[in-house]
Input
Amino acid sequence: MASTRNPEIRSDIVFNKSVIFSTARARRPSDFKSTSATFNRGSSNSSCPFCIGREHECAPEILRVPRATSDWKIRVIENLYPALRRDIEFRSRELDSVPEAGVLSGFGFHDVVIETPTHDVCLSDLSAEGVGGVLIAFRERVLQLLSNEAIQYVQIFKNHGASAGASMSHSHSQIMGLPVVPPTVTTRLQNMKERYEKTGKCGVCEIKPGELLIDESSHFYSMVPFAACFPFEIWIIPRNHSSHFHELDSEKAVDLGGLLKLMLRKLSQQFNDPPFNFMVHTSPFQAKPSHMPHSHWFLQIVPQFFGIGGFEMGSGCYINPVFPEEAAKLLREVDVS
Amino acid sequence: MASTRNPEIRSDIVFNKSVIFSTARARRPSDFKSTSATFNRGSSNSSCPFCIGREHECAPEILRVPRATSDWKIRVIENLYPALRRDIEFRSRELDSVPEAGVLSGFGFHDVVIETPTHDVCLSDLSAEGVGGVLIAFRERVLQLLSNEAIQYVQIFKNHGASAGASMSHSHSQIMGLPVVPPTVTTRLQNMKERYEKTGKCGVCEIKPGELLIDESSHFYSMVPFAACFPFEIWIIPRNHSSHFHELDSEKAVDLGGLLKLMLRKLSQQFNDPPFNFMVHTSPFQAKPSHMPHSHWFLQIVPQFFGIGGFEMGSGCYINPVFPEEAAKLLREVDVS
Ligand SMILES: Nc1ncnc2c1ncn2[C@@H]1O[C@H](COP(=O)(O)OP(=O)(O)O[C@H]2O[C@H](CO)[C@@H](O)[C@H](O)[C@H]2O)[C@@H](O)[C@H]1O
Ligand SMILES: Nc1ncnc2c1ncn2[C@@H]1O[C@H](COP(=O)(O)OP(=O)(O)O[C@H]2O[C@H](CO)[C@@H](O)[C@H](O)[C@H]2O)[C@@H](O)[C@H]1O
Output
């Protein structure tokens, strides 16, 4: 990659983050020992509660695929150590120490999706249909949560590898049903709404990926966002406007499953199974799909090569040593055949 | 800590972040090997460019304390791998791939503050006067940057330990002069301005720390913020309203130096020298101090015990397993005498 290119500051239209692209940063030395947190595949198979046959060691099951069989492929279960509790009342109170600072009771749902019965299989090992099945399980659970009036937003996410925050190595993702619309979502919707009011168009529909394109499927395309916060960050975007992830039908789920699998395989092959996160960015529940011409759901994949530092924590700006055009070119060319 | 306390969702008045407090999360098991990135004190002394006598291996010097002596205590130097460049023009252009997305040239300043000539000394090993001297060096450099019309905000921060992002182990911090006001600052100022317009008072002046108080000095106090994103996060706040860090005078610098040293020693003793970041949250340059009755600078310290995951990246909400009242009580009681 051209290390002489001058740095640039780009601002992101969706999340309104500022990102500094600087190739000089890629050449920094370090006098710390490598801290790569290796993913001990299989190491704890014998005691893993997510493995088939150990269902009794898990918190209660919500749904399984296929239904009513001991030979399941996917299970959605309650998180045994939930951040939010489904069994308490939703209410608010004032905090004494800070005038007007609000406190809500921690009502909400926190589920785990076990993506495979087998300990050593990871998401990208599944077929396109297999990954599509996981996406459909997400949708089924979102539709259940939709019927709860107190839930306003659902955050679907995956942590893979210890440096991406995972505490369990068996392939899984998580679904949290929140009684509030979280800050990132509020900001994103506000940005997209302002843009819509100005242009009459959805800002995400208007993206022309050009040299930022990685791959395409029938209903989706993948690209490096023009102001990627992290090197080799990938967005998978539905071609046609859709505000809510749970609008995904079975055909599109398999199509998306294939593209998601391809992106994960490319990252894994190119960077030797790096830790990563993925996040589904959807729209809040209270909004009817037809009312959200400005909000377009997408899936974000972030490989984790190094942690952030005080600059990012303090300013909310990111420093990315890899220009998006160069990341996209590299990812386009990875051959996983 | 009471593990039966129900979870709570608190929202922060300053940054407008939502934080879920859940003691259940503290009990999660992990099947990954420990990933603690040990800080190899002294291990690379012999090749450290920040050590006294190796000044020629560093990028150019900006200032040293005391001035014009080879027996220096503090040096401010250019970063050899700068994210922003001081030698390019500041200008903007449009990006083809995304209509209206802006790109600025990466003009700006990126400096390193070497806090001690000695490799094995860390910031909290210095005396209160010594730490105060580092704060005064920050101020001197900020005052220099103030004279550059293109600089709008200065982010001062420190990374300590590899898991807090540090690539160099010799005690140092960084100063970045930015040609834009970064997103976190814009949000913070907007929140504080709205509050000021409603109440006629500065929201930070109005904080009554109560059971969240940790320690106090003549001009500052330290507390755990009521919606701390991270366990044992600490804010050090000037008692009297002040919008800009660079208003700090020499007497207050020593006073702050003593309290900062005390907080870092408490963290180090209680948690065995954990990685941490600190960030100075000040006000943009263009605003005259007298025009900012709503913006109150402070210093934030964040010890890094574990990384964040997809939930935080996706939603901007944090999950904190330690309630602020309990963190403050523990930190109040750490005996560093
Ligand atoms: N027997 C069992 N039955 C049911 N559930 C079980 C279980 N044993 C463990 N679990 C749950 O399984 C989940 C596994 O999740 P991950 O490995 O993706 O990350 P975790 O949530 O631990 O934290 C990461 O993700 C969160 C959210 O992003 C961050 O807050 C955090 O810092 C980061 O480490 C845990 O939440 C755990 O509580
Ligand atoms: N001989 C020399 N002369 C002058 N300067 C020298 C030098 N040798 C090294 N440097 C500079 O010294 C600095 C040391 O900084 P830190 O150890 O605090 O973290 P770093 O900036 O590497 O990255 C961390 O902080 C940044 C900002 O938060 C994050 O983007 C990043 O992910 C995280 O790892 C580096 O910026 C490096 O460029």
Remarks:
- Chain B touches chain A through 107 residues (CB under 8 Å).
- Confidence is low (pLDDT under 50) at residues 34-40 of chain B.
- Residues A 49, 57-59, 77, 79-81, 112, 159, 165-168, 172, 174; B 28, 306, 308-312, 319 surround adenosine-5'-diphosphate-glucose (ligand 1) (CB under 6 Å).
- Residues 155 and 176 of chain B are 5 Å apart (CA to CA).
